[in-house]
């Protein structure tokens, strides 16, 4: 699987021939100023929750690419009311088959609201089982024992999880999450974008190494194969 990082919690994964994009927040992020939003390709766009730093560019990218927009029920209604027609709803506990494989939706411990303050639905994460490999994206979340359910559904090859602390898990809890899920590799997201989630990269990588885990901190615009 080829992973490309677009900053904050936005990344894409090429699973076979299908491009899966997650939580697109690019245009307002000064750290991602060199990313050409209109050059991004996607077959699916997954939203973990309704906060602005996860959906700001979703409608634009979905309209540009024709990608299927996937999210919880409230997000699904928001997609449809904002001109998208290629949409699909999924809430925690739900599982569905897509062109690239299976997706299972898991609960996340966080908050969720749209910019006008209206309710954004239950925050969630997603586990993927594809012919190219399996992975878990937690979305914004605290450490939760529900993460043990991910490994009961399927064995994951790696995880993508927040590591910036304050609003989500920090390093210590992300290590515990990896151990619950049963992965040795984690791509860290949701750090450095704002002043209160600055990350000590060297210490974080070393803390993971001491736990016999690999933390991958990608550069914005970087791609790698996992």
UniProtKB/TrEMBL annotation:
Entry-linked SMART domains: Lactamase_B
InterPro entries: Metallo-B-lactamas, RibonucZ/Hydroxyglut_hydro, UPF0173_UPF0282_UlaG_hydrolase
UniProt keyword Nucleotide-binding present: no
GO molecular function, one term: hydrolase activity
Keywords (A to Z) from UniProt: Hydrolase
Domain Metallo-beta-lactamase: 7-190
PANTHER family: UPF0173 METAL-DEPENDENT HYDROLASE MJ1163, UPF0173 METAL-DEPENDENT HYDROLASE MJ1163-RELATED
Name of the protein described by the UniProt record: Metal-dependent hydrolase
Native source organism of the sequence: Pedobacter jamesrossensis
Taxonomy of the source species: Bacteria, Pseudomonadati, Bacteroidota, Sphingobacteriia, Sphingobacteriales
């Amino acid at each position: 699987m080829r992973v490309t990082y677009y900053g904050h919690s936005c990344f894409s994964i090429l699973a076979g021939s299908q491009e899966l994009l997650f939580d697109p927040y690019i245009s307002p992020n000064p750290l991602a100023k060199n990313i050409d939003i209109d050059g991004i390709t996607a077959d699916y766009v997954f939203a973990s929750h309704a906060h602005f730093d996860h959906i700001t560019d979703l409608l634009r990218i979905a309209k540009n690419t024709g990608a299927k927009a996937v999210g919880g029920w409230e997000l699904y209604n928001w997609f449809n009311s904002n001109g998208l027609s290629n949409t699909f709803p999924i809430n925690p506990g739900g599982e569905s088959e897509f062109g690239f494989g299976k997706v299972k939706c898991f609960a996340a411990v966080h908050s969720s609201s749209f910019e006008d303050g209206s309710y954004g639905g239950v925050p969630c994460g997603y586990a993927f089982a594809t012919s190219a490999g399996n992975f878990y994206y937690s979305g914004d979340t605290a450490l939760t024992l529900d993460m043990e359910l991910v490994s009961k559904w399927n064995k994951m090859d790696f995880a993508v999880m927040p590591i910036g602390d304050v609003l989500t898990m920090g390093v210590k809890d992300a290590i515990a999450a990896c151990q619950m899920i049963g992965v040795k590799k984690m791509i860290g997201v949701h750090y450095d974008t704002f002043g209160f989630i600055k990350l000590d990269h060297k210490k974080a990588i070393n803390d993971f190494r001491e736990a016999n885990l690999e933390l991958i901190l990608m550069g914005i615009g970087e791609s790698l194969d996992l």
